[in-house]
Amino acid sequence: MANTTLSRPPSTAPDWTISQRWDRYTSAEHAMWDRLFARQAAMLRGRVAPAFLDGLDMLRMSRPGIPDFMELSERLMKATGWQVVAVPGLIPDDVFFDHLANRRFVAGNFIRTPQQLDYLQEPDVFHDVFGHVPLLANPVFADYMQAYGIGGQRAASGGVIERLSRLYWYTVEFGLIRGRDDELKIYGAGIVSSHGESVFALDDPSPNRLGFDVKRLMRTPYRIDDYQQTYFVIDSFDDLLHRTLDADFGPLYHELAQAPDYEIDTIGPGDTIYTRGTQAYARMKRAHDKADRPEAAGAPARGD
Ligand SMILES: [Fe+2]
Fold first, then answer.
1. Measured CA angle at 81 (ends 80, 84), to 5 deg
2. Average pLDDT of the chain?
3. pLDDT tens across 192-234, in order?
4. Which one of 73, 127, 194, 206 is the catalytic residue?
5. Distance between CA atoms of 275 and 174, rounded to whole angstroms?
6. Is the distance from CB of 167 to CB of 150 less than 8 angstroms?
7. Shortest CA distance to 228 belongs to which of 277, 268, 193, 270?
């Protein structure tokens, strides 16, 4: 995700890209990729959308070591016209949207340390490349990502990026999809690259799982600090693309400006409910937080 209050480091190109410096990775860094890859590949079997596994195969991402973005981009370019470019970390929103609108996916080039195995402040190459890139080999999802970039450029000029960022969050990062057998599967990169959330998002009784609806979703805050309390389920990538392209965002943003947000764990009368979550996990975490920090007792839980 991106940010607006950043200044460009001198080592970056005007579009904020840097060289991946693939030859500089150490064997320990490649081994960290392999460890994460093996763990997630085993975890995702039967849980992830088949298009994700097709992408891993097509891009030959199961070869050992951190992928070289040049090679990855060559294969991706042939499949859907996308490329992967390296950036130093968070980048401004307008730069992020411009890359997506031009079919360039920006990825961090560093990899987490063993101490950061399960929690990271900023996305690393494993999240960005393992999590996001396989679906960019899917032509429909590839079009959706570009459409999001173009929508972002429009939203930036209208001052409504926060609304739009919820669409990215609840689809590209934390989306669920209905499989052919009606079982839910994972496709969001934030879930796919997380050992814990790839179980929680599908199996835990805590979170709500609701049918995808652009307007509803844009009124729903999200968690940046923990597992989501609500997930939205799409029927297919075709449906996601078309419902997003067909949405008339100008009037929608106008309407949303008058509409209050939902509570992060609320279910509304118009929602399609796959799971009415118990929210037990979020409650348990809140209780732990209060026990750890008594001065925070009574303070509202962070929900955005
Ligand atoms: Fe991401």
1. 105
2. 91
3. 999 999 999 999 999 999 999 999 999 999 999 899 999 999 9
4. 127
5. 16
6. no
7. 277
Q: Are 290 and 213 in contact (CB under 8 A)?
A: no
Name the β-bridge partners of 107: 86
End-to-end CA distance of the chain: 14
Q: How far apart are CA 221 and CA 50, in angstroms?
A: 29
The alpha carbon of residue 197 and the mean position of all alpha carbons in its chain are separated, in whole angstroms, by 12
Instruction: State the catalytic residue, choosing from 73, 99, 132, 198.
Output: 132
DSSP letter string, 107-143: EE-----GGGSS--SS--HIIIIIIIHHHHTSHHHHH
Given 73, 99, 173, 194, which residue is catalytic?
173
Of the candidates 240, 222, 229, the one whose C-alpha atom is nearest the C-alpha of residue 283 is 229
126 CA distance to ligand 1 middle (Å): 10
